Amino acid sequence: MIFTSFNPPQRTLMGPGPSDIYPRVLQAQSRPTVGHLDPLFIGMMDEVKQLLQYAFQTENPVTMAVSAPGSAGMETCFVNLLEPGEKVIVCRNGVFGDRMRENVERCGATAVVVDDEWGKPVDPEKVEQALKANPDASVLAFVHAETSTGALSDAKTLAELARKYGCLTIVDTVTSLGGVPLLVDEWQLDAVYSGSQKCLSCVPGLSPVTFSEKAVERIKNRKSKVQSWFLDQSLVLGYWSGEGKRSYHHTAPVNALYALHESLVLLHNEGLENAWQRHRDAHEQLKAGLEKLGLSFVVDEPYRLPQLNAVYIPDGVDDAAVRTRLLNDYNLEIGAGLGALAGKAWRIGLMGYGARRENVSLCLRALEETIR
């Protein structure tokens, strides 16, 4: 057998992630590789940290990118903050809330699950009832932007409840970072993780995280070792913290971090508020077109993510056949439904570089022609 180079077609990515990548980000990744302890690279890491602090709207010193995808960012938060025997209130209104529950249990802790219907935001009243009923809970975990449904929950209110009952928060912002307001310091969120491949429009494989002073204090005062050597923040901090000299922990994904740096520079130069508005504008354009096609949204308007649009598949329309034709005839990818929405909904992403008028126009034209 003879193998040749892999040359994929130019797709338009409008699923739940990865998103279309900025050309400048792809170019940045192809720059010459340097050593991960090279002083020039360490200087760039310092800039990545500052740019992530801007994106998260935080001054947390412990802000970095985990050298693995968003799922590892999730695990980083759980394994560092939880010890066996602890109790955690877990909010579940989609696939990724359930992944939080799985992480809690794998840490040897107990998950008290607060369920909400798929497509609905987390209900603060249910959360407060659970916190009252479980005064020994130490953490409240919830998804800010549920990627499986496109529902946005009220992180500010949920964090206030956590503080009221003496809990730290673990917050999934994989789909929200860069796409909708996320104010880590103002809302006093404690352990927050995200992903590079959504609204940052960077290559997949990195997970921005940030930890509050309270969270760092919890990590420093653990009674047991973190169950994961690689994700143990007390070890990684020597590589990411401070200025100048770094201690070796692992070989950082040098070129992927070039890409993250470039995507964060683009976000910083655009301005967070402008980026949030651009996602909103693209959503309004998509919404108007989808409604003309007779498609209805899974999530009620007040709780709807502009960057992740879940819409019900019309009766009599073959889900897989439509998505396959979009891919083959238009080089356009949209997402299938997950879990309870499998076969019932499509997920249309407007993330980062993908939140552009020409992408929306292509998607609407392709859907209309394919469904018809």
Structure description:
This protein has 372 residues and is α/β, with parallel strands linked by helices. The chain has 13 helices and 14 strands. The longest helix has 21 residues, at 272-292. The mean pLDDT is 96.
Distinctive features:
13 helices; 41% helix; seven-stranded mixed β-sheet; 14 strands; 372 residues
Count of beta strands: 14
Helical stretch tally: 13
Q: Compute the gyration radius: what is it?
A: 21 Å
- How far apart are the first and last residues' alpha carbons, in Å? 43 Å
The percent range for strand residues is 5-15%
The chain-level structural class is: alpha/beta
Major sheet, described briefly? 7 strands, mixed
How confident overall, as mean pLDDT? Answer: 96
Poorly predicted runs of 5 or more residues: none
- Secondary structure: helix percent: 40-55%
SSE succession: EHHEHEHEHEEEHEHEEHHHHEHEEEH
Shape type: globular
Question: Largest beta sheet: what is the strand line-up?
Answer: 2-10-9-8-5-3-4
How would you summarize the topology of this molecule?
Layout: E1 12-13, H1 23-29, H2 39-56, E2 62-66, H3 70-81, E3 87-92, H4 95-106, E4 110-115, H5 124-133, E5 139-143, E6 145-146, E7 151-152, H6 155-164, E8 168-172, H7 184-187, E9 191-193, E10 207-211, H8 213-220, H9 233-240, H10 254-270, H11 272-292, E11 308-312, H12 319-330, E12 332-333, E13 335-336, E14 345-349, H13 357-371
Parallel strand pairs: 1-12, 3-4, 3-5, 5-8, 8-9
Antiparallel strand pairs: 2-10, 6-7, 9-10, 11-14, 13-14
Q: What does this entry show, briefly?
A:
With 372 residues, this protein is an alpha/beta fold. It has helices spanning 23-29, 39-56, 70-81, 95-106, 124-133, 155-164, 184-187, 213-220, 233-240, 254-270, 272-292, 319-330, 357-371; strands at 12-13, 62-66, 87-92, 110-115, 139-143, 145-146, 151-152, 168-172, 191-193, 207-211, 308-312, 332-333, 335-336, 345-349. It has a 7-stranded mixed sheet, sandwiched between helices. A 3-stranded antiparallel sheet has the order 11-14-13, covered by helices on one side.
